[in-house]
Design brief:
The strands form seven sheets. A five-stranded mixed sheet has the order 2-1-5-13-14. Strands 7-6-18-17-16 form a five-stranded antiparallel sheet, with helices on both faces. It is an alpha+beta fold and 742 residues long. It contains 23 helices and 23 strands. A hairpin with a 5-residue loop joins strand 1 and strand 2. The longest helix has 26 residues, at 2-27.
């Protein structure tokens, strides 16, 4: 071995003089390469970091390399000294090339039986890693040496060392010292000690062979070599070297401590990739920026609120699944928004990514019918048109009305629990969630006007302008419901929901900064009156289970036909929150579930936890009403006591599967099995008002209100019901029935 080393040394000296001549020649020849740009940190592929409102990292976006850039001041001096000791002892003395190090390394390595010193300088290694590659050929090596000398003239030593420590590979997918510190010990680079620094330095020449996870024996040998070299150079004593070498090696890869993959972070990622307002450029440009350019993305995510939301949902679903509803699959979604900014603070989009293989976010991607939670938009439309909370309207039912474009037409509805209803103020009709009252009020203000107000408040889905819309027959997104109710909390000013506060590039330059911009969508008076009505509903009405102990709250329940969807939506001055319960895949009956049951409980649990550490905040006082309350009369538009009311009541009492929700319409669906679809009101005198009711249906044990009987061709008996038998000759009916023909 000594003879081999001497031969190697002699060979180097023999070839050095012609090699030096070539170097001088190349160095004086222009090379089309901007070294400062090509080896700059900006050109490295590094991960992007995502932060919460406290500046804590909650996730990373990385596609190719796990690299986290860090300043030299944030890398421990032990690491810097260990790397220089084994890779480039004369780093601060040479000008990019160190021939004496090649000779010395050859002698040391042969004598030690391992790699104790490197021959190439750090500057050469940097050029090799980032510019010329590691192909074994003389020309490539000469280019590397020339460029190393040039780089030493363009950058100072500290910058070169910083670049090197951020680019070198340490195995297990870790590029740079910071990523390596995280992967092997779960630490920051500034916290690494001599033992850890020596282990990393020993891996540089062969990250696979000297990796402590893959080859602990090789890693121990290389760490000992580095520690001994540090002792030779006087950085540590021999005893310290032995002590550090006895430290245990890492035995597993440490993942970055991050919360489980979340709907919130996925929403942020998709916004960055899809919406050019954040990063601009093409989809390909945005992809590279998100995954490879080292962005720092600061979000609106509140980890405490998220934890509280998930706990409330989990507890409520446990109660649902262990109670009478066990076996009827359902899940919940929740979204919470800061009303006076639009910042999304918490988001539960379903059962979680571990169970939701398609990662479908029910809070932002799923549309479902909101039920009576939509009545709030009818109420706001009333106030915008000059009505006031003390105005009264009939809530008597059952109720019937024309429903052009909807199913069925005419539309027949009952109040919850088939209540007869009565004439009450708008405040009280919200409190009891009267279906018939709000169907009438929808006709009063105009369905198109209701659609317009709901859209201004933030409902982005297309709403069908049908008579049943006040009962929530159109589908909406939960996040839109939270935003719309939040616009009431702010006195009628809407702030678009948002997730991203600002985005910085790797140098700290601001690429995006959210600008707060509110838009008035309803008057302050309308919003304030609506708030008062919804506060009353929380105290005295269907929302009483959702009350916040230390804080006034306002909200509304919502339940659709057959309890397929159940909601609670409400707000305080601090937060607007929407909670939805239902089956995520299809609309199925949930047997007696209402918005005032599980959704209200989950909403109350979350909001109580959220407000526990906050000072109570009061809603603003409202302007007085300008007149005495009037009774809204709609006799010629929509009336109780219509021709079919008694018959509908008899039929409805015998129908199966009628809704049990607080706002269920119990309307006919129009299918052949629903006999109410065969009940036909008729305008006999053509005055625009339906004054006669005719129905074809099986006897079914009901008492006929008419006198005529006949049989179909198949001999199945039917009865003709009519309020005015004497007028039967004035018209002729032909109806297709579910069974038996025409």
């Amino acid at each position: 071995m000594p003879m081999l080393a001497l031969a190697l040394t002699a060979t180097i000296f023999v070839v050095w003089l012609p090699t030096a001549d070539v170097l001088r020649s190349w160095d004086s020849t222009p090379v089309e390469l901007n070294l400062t740009e090509d080896v700059h940190l900006n050109e490295l592929s590094i991960r992007s970091n995502v932060y919460d409102i406290n500046g804590q990292m909650i996730d990373v976006f990385s596609y190719i390399e796990n690299r986290a850039l860090t300043n030299l001041d944030d890398i421990s001096q032990q690491v810097q000294n260990a790397v220089l000791a084994i890779e480039d002892e004369n780093f601060y003395l040479h000008a990019g090339i160190d021939l004496s190090a090649v000779v010395r390394a050859g002698l040391e390595n042969v004598g030690a039986g391992g790699i104790t010193q490197g021959g190439s300088t750090l500057t050469q290694q940097l050029i090799k890693n980032l510019v010329v590659g590691n192909k074994v050929e003389a020309e490539r090596k000469l280019r590397e040496m020339v460029m190393a000398r040039r780089l030493e003239r363009e950058l100072d030593k500290q910058d070169i060392l910083n670049l090197y420590l951020n680019t070198v590979y340490f195995g297990q997918g870790a590029y740079g010292v910071q990523a390596a510190a995280e992967v092997y010990w779960g630490l920051n680079a500034v916290d690494l000690d001599w033992s850890q620094a020596a282990l990393l330095a020993g891996m540089i020449n062969n990250p696979s062979r000297n990796n402590p996870i893959n080859n602990p024996v090789g890693a121990l040998r290389q760490r000992r070599i580095v520690l001994n070299r540090l002792a030779d150079l006087g950085f540590i004593t021999r005893d310290e070297a032995e002590q550090y070498n006895r430290q245990p090696l890492p035995t597993k890869v440490n993942q970055i401590e991050l919360p489980p993959k979340s709907y919130f972070v996925e929403e942020v990622k998709q916004l960055l990739l899809d919406d050019p307002k954040y990063l601009g450029g093409t989809p390909e440009d945005r992809f590279n920026l998100v995954f490879n350019s080292g962005l720092n993305i600061y979000t609106t995510f509140d980890p405490d609120a998220q934890r509280q939301a998930e706990a409330a949902i989990t507890q409520t679903l446990v109660e649902y699944n262990t109670g009478e509803h066990a076996g009827v699959p359902a899940t919940m979604a929740l979204v919470a928004i800061e009303p006076d900014t639009g910042a999304v603070r918490a988001l539960v989009g379903g059962p979680g990514f571990a169970q939701d293989k398609e990662e479908f976010n029910l809070a932002t991607q799923g549309t479902r019918q909101p039920g009576s939670a939509f009545k709030t938009f009818v109420m706001l439309t009333l106030f915008e048109q000059g009505y006031q909370p003390s105005d009264q309207v009939s809530g008597e039912g059952p109720c019937l009305m024309a429903n052009p474009g909807g199913v069925p037409d005419p539309y027949v509805a009952h109040n919850f629990a088939r209540s007869a209803g009565q004439i009450e103020t708008i405040t009280n009709q919200i409190r009891v969630s009267s279906n018939c009252a709000f169907l009438r009020l929808g006709q009063l203000v105009g369905i198109e006007s209701v659609v317009a107000v709901a859209s201004r408040l933030g409902i982005s889905a297309d709403l069908p302008p049908v008579a049943s819309l006040p009962l929530g027959s159109g589908e909406v997104y939960p996040i839109d419901m939270a935003s719309a109710y939040g616009s009431i909390a702010t006195g009628g000013i809407r702030y678009e929901p948002y997730y991203i506060e600002r985005i910085l590039d790797r140098q700290g330059n601001v690429l995006y900064d959210h600008e707060l911009a509110g838009e008035r969508v309803v008057s302050a008076r309308s919003a304030c009156w609506a708030t008062e009505v919804l506060v009353n509903n929380m105290v005295n009405g269907t929302g009483h289970r959702a009350q916040v102990r230390s804080q006034p709250g306002a909200g509304k329940t919502g339940t659709t036909e057959e309890s397929a969807d159940a909601w609670f939506v409400g707000f305080t001055p601090y937060l607007a929150t929407a909670v939805w319960l239902g089956n995520p895949n299809e609309r199925i009956p949930l047997r007696g579930v209402t918005g005032s049951s599980y959704p209200a409980l989950a909403w109350g649990r979350f909001m109580n936890d959220y407000h526990e550490i906050r000072e109570p905040a009061m809603f603003s006082g409202c302007p007085s009403e300008t007149r005495l309350g009037d009774i809204v009369r709609l006799d010629n538009v929509f009336t109780v006591g219509h021709p079919c009311a008694d018959l509908l009541d008899q039929v409805g009492a015998k129908q199966q599967g009628r809704a049990s929700g607080d706002d269920a319409a119990n309307a006919a669906t129009g299918n052949a099995e629903d006999i109410t679809s065969q009940i036909v009101p008729v305008d006999t005198d053509e005055d625009g008002f339906q004054d006669t009711c005719v129905s074809l249906l099986t006897t079914g044990g009901l008492e006929p209100c008419g006198l005529s009987e006949f049989a179909t061709e198949e001999g199945i008996p039917w009865e003709l019901y009519c309020d005015a038998p004497a007028q039967l000759g004035a018209f002729q009916l032909e109806a297709t029935v579910g069974v038996g023909g025409t």
